[in-house]
Amino acid sequence: MLLTDACIDRDQANLDRIRAGAQRLLGQVSAILANGDKVSQIDGRLRSLVDTAHWALERSLPTDFTAGLDHTSHAFRMLGVISIRPGESNQELSALLKLHESEISRAGRRLIYVGLAQKRKFGRINRWEITPRGTEVLSRQQSTPPVGEVFAKLFDALLGRRFVDSQFSEEDLIRLTNISAAAMRPAVQRLVDMGYLERETRGTTAPGRQALRVNQRRGCAVGVSVLRHEVRAVLTDAHAHQVDTKLRPLPTVGTTTRVDEIAVVGAIGEMVDEWRREFQILGVGAEIAGHVDEHGTVRLSPPLRWRDVFLRTLLEERLGGLPVVVENDANVLAIYEHRFGEAGGRMRSFAVVMITPRGEGIGSGLILNGELYRGNEGGAGEIGHYTVRPTGGRKCRCGRNGCLEAETGVESMVAKVRRATGKRGLTLKDITDLATADEATAVNAIEYAGTMMGRGISFLMNTLDLEGVLLSGPPEICSTGQDRTRSSKVFLDSICNEAQSRLYPTLRGAVSMEKIIEMMPFKDLDRERGAASVLLDAITGHQAARQETSRSILTEFTGHPA
Ligand SMILES: [Zn+2]
Known about the structure:
The chain is an alpha+beta fold.
């Protein structure tokens, strides 16, 4: 009775006393009746009393004191996996947690030592299971994070490239996000209830292991690209995969008049409204050539002739409060590559250098340590205006001379070829065709453009020590692999030679520049998909400038203010 009460009350002092008393009794009984067989019964009872008291005492000690497991420790992660998948072997755990088997056995020893898990032998293999005490420790230590945080992490896992075109389970999500099953279950259920996730109900698997997939008609994003004569839009699913496209021409503008922002907002509004009848849309991402600040105001866009256009506010008003993000075109490509591209999976710090489709403008987007770097005013990455030719350079549209954009841009190539050949009305395609036909002036013009670009890239590399630079541009000069044109080869070779010669000796000295600088020719609708990905990326709340958007989308999902 005394023991039962003490256990229930978790009365440590009494449990201590009981254990000590039982031990003393056991000693006395053993000593007095050392040679009697009849004592075995009493002896057994006393021993079990000592054991019960001992384990009750162990369990009642503060768990953080006895377990002392850090949330991020291997042992804690291993305990989490064992709790949802009992019966895994060391080898299986090693694959699940991406840890070496020796680390698994070390973490396992810690878990056994503090009584949180145990091994059982099945045949020749040891399989792990959690003890009641382990379950208790887990539920206490896996503090339940705020609902918004659970959803943000959940989206982070869902949106990444990890589940593209495939099924996954609740367990996969728990493992990827490190969120407890207790917090994950209701979050997943809510997404299922909302139709965002679909559960595979065939088969008799336990709920935690039921296959889930993302519903392509829910949680969609719209990406738009505002150009001088048209607005192009793409509807994507939650993985930035293209589902549908639309296009609206804009009223024609003369060479000096500006693009009418009201017409732009109207065109985007119409397209989104049409899609909204069929799809659930989380928000709209818009990309603009020019300087866009963190509030989505277009501070300056030379091609649209815009200055201080409150594009995000205008769009949100037109779309009835649907979240909108507006971002610079090069930043859009950088975020797209970071979250959904192959290079983004390899590198944490890189730049996307973008040459506009007709070769007239140059910008860059910087991903530093896994985050877009926007700078103080959102104007970071304007490498087009590096002075690469301090004297005798061409006039740039920013008003100064010798900027990278002016020296590398198509106009500079056109001027050189015209001077030598007298040909007028040349395009980038004409020049690259001439280069393919071995026309010396055209080859030289491309070589010079590449050299200046290499100089610009060396500035970027010397400042930021990047892992790599992706060069996104017209296929005439940025094609890769099999269909590489003569011009692309000349362009890349001169970039690499110049960059290598200007790089600080210890920076990437041993690696060839071809490995660091990669060509990424434009594919159709890349920019629009990129814009959609910026909206999707905003949900995860990783980018500081997008937290407001993240909160408003998550509030919609969770039903709680995030
Ligand atoms: Zn300039």
